[in-house]
Amino acid sequence: MTFTDQSGMEAIPLTVLTGFLGAGKTTLLNRILTGDHGLRVAVLVNDFGSINIDAELVLGIESEGDVINLANGCVCCNIRDDLVAAVMQVMTRAEQPEYILLEASGVADPSGIALTFMDENMRNRIRLDSIMCVIDAEQVFAAPELMELKLRQVAFADMLILNKVDLVATEEIERIKAWLDERFHRCRLVQASHGNVPLEILLSVGRFDPMQLGVAPPVEDFDHSPNCSDHNCGHRLHYRRENHAERFGTWSYETAMPLSLEALREAVRKLPASIYRCKGVVHVGEEPGRRVILQVVGKRVDIAVADEWNGQVPRTCIIAIGAHDCVDATELGQVFDRCRAEPPEV
After folding, report:
1. In whole angstroms, what is the distance from residue 112 CA to residue 134 CA?
2. List of residues 6+ apart from 12 with CB closer than 8 A
3. DSSP E strands: which ranges in 51-149?
4. pTM, whole model, 2 decimals?
């Protein structure tokens, strides 16, 4: 899957890792870099001090020339021009990256970073995939004098990673979640220890196929929705037996009937907060000859018209990943069923 702008250029997806000092951004970054995703990843690491310590902690990447250090400032303000130059440098490499990761300084305001990639000269080259904010469960309420900055980092994020949950009691986790929900309604929050979050949640790039990590096993391993009598409808629910089985669930949807593009756009914006990721190739009535790529990560929605079907039978295939025991197969099936386009009048 690829995303292109109107001129036909392919835009490179970029994820920003933000969060206050010590939250675990570099640990999460290393989790992505060492994961089995098969992507060619470029990394931009920014530290506020004169020495970029974070770049030294990135595993096995700097020696290959894929880390560009942005020191002596903050990517959202003092060295914003350096950030643009660094991104452009990455994109001129002989082997162009398929994905860019930017680890922002712990004192960075992500709003400035987002504005950088919304610039007219950048939009056609970079697609801001997501802004992920890492939160230290043990230190959420520490340094109250900097709480405004912490809240701004959360406010501009598409997904929240509540890290280090192994260091606090269950009651404290519930307190943090209630505190966040009171301020940011329907925020997507994933609990983690040591940055251990499934790659299929962290990476929203079109080329990254959850199927290759075993998220969607053979059909016989799925349980059909008990409220659906049509076993060919595609309303399938499955909880992975291997890694993350106790925390995450996946669901898939397939149909040969075209969907309404506007109905789809409206539906995915209202997905339950328990759904972290949703992606797929969609057959829509408005563009019957071309594939439409759906990407939802946290609260960010990206729907783009892509290439032609090239002889393939047009068909919608969507996969969703969410919190364990909160992925309602029947409800999600009804959501996408309601997106089906009205048949043309004869």
Report:
1. 18
2. 91, 96, 97, 98, 99, 100, 125, 126, 127
3. 67-70, 99-103, 126-136
4. 0.67
